[in-house]
Write a structure and sequence with these properties.
By secondary structure, this protein is α/β, with parallel strands linked by helices. It has a single domain, classed as Alpha-Beta Barrel (TIM Barrel), CATH 3.20.20. It has a 9-stranded parallel sheet, sandwiched between helices. Helix 2 packs parallel to helix 11, helix 6 packs across helix 7 and helix 10 packs across helix 11. The radius of gyration is 17 Å and the shape is globular. It starts with a helix and ends with a helix. The relative contact order is 0.18.
């Protein structure tokens, strides 16, 4: 059982949805990134998705693309990203990156390094689960996190969510990451369809931007993932106030999620 499994078991017993912020390693710089990790933990995050910067992040919208580019310019590398994340205590850690980053270093070696840095799961949007599973399960014991989109066929969905461990990342809309004003129509029904096919927790990402979004989704999903909204807050706050403002925002989202189950 990984730290992810343990955390969701605790949340299930407490009838609480998970809060999972996404932070790009090294954005806006290494020191601020570390302070953002501490702020996320202090605000009550259950898991943290940590992005390893890549030059062509095809699943990400403009906000995270720009954050990834700035992190690379500031000196972020895969090894540094993992090292900067090592000391995060409390939340379970999930590494997110792309196939080129993983394969360039040797997939088994990359996943072993991630496991040694305390990561419990991996999201690789452009590496097929079949290919990733050969490396992840054999090399490191990381949970491989499948992504299910509105365009995923029912047959493919059943294949992707097979097995146990980790969680399912439900992509709320077709397209790339990014904050949106409204939740898509039919999201609850989509979540319920996926939940009928798997015992894994189902967490919703892409477009979660407000406490109202979190409260709505927390009523029927097992967790929410927020990323682009945090990039915006970091930019607006500047390095000096980024951790404080992100902590305030995540604290409000934590309270909204908890209230959604009362």
């Amino acid at each position: 059982m990984t730290a992810i499994d343990e955390r969701f078991a605790e949340l299930r017993r407490a009838n609480r949805p998970a809060l999972m912020p996404y932070l790009c390693a090294g954005f806006p710089d290494a020191a601020t990134f570390r302070s953002l990790l501490r702020a996320a933990a202090d605000a009550g995050s259950d898991l943290v998705e940590i992005g390893v910067p890549f030059s062509d992040p095809i699943a990400d919208g403009p906000a995270i693309q720009h954050a990834s580019h700035e992190a690379l310019v500031a000196g972020a590398t895969p090894d540094r990203a993992l090292a900067w994340s090592r000391d995060l205590a409390g939340p379970a850690k999930v590494v997110m990156t792309y196939a080129n980053v993983v394969l360039a270093r040797g997939a088994a070696a990359f996943f072993r390094r991630a496991s040694a840095a305390g990561f419990s799961g991996a999201i690789i949007p452009d590496l097929t689960p079949e290919a990733a599973r050969r490396h992840v399960n054999g090399a490191s014991g990381l949970d491989l996190i499948p992504m299910i989109a509105p365009t995923t066929t029912p047959a493919r969905m059943r294949t992707l969510v097979k097995g146990r461990g980790g969680f399912v990342y439900l992509v709320s809309v077709a397209g790339v990451t990014g904050a949106r004003r409204d939740l898509p129509a039919g999201l609850e029904a989509f979540v319920q369809r996926v939940k009928r096919e798997t015992p894994r927790p189902v967490c919703v990402g892409f477009g979660i931007a407000t406490t109202a979004h979190a409260a709505a989704v927390g009523r029927y999903a097992d967790g929410v993932i927020v990323g682009s909204a945090l990039v915006r807050i970091i930019r607006e706050a500047g390095k000096r106030h980024a951790a404080r403002n992100v902590g305030i925002f995540l604290g409000r989202m934590r309270r909204a999620l908890d209230a959604s189950r009362r």
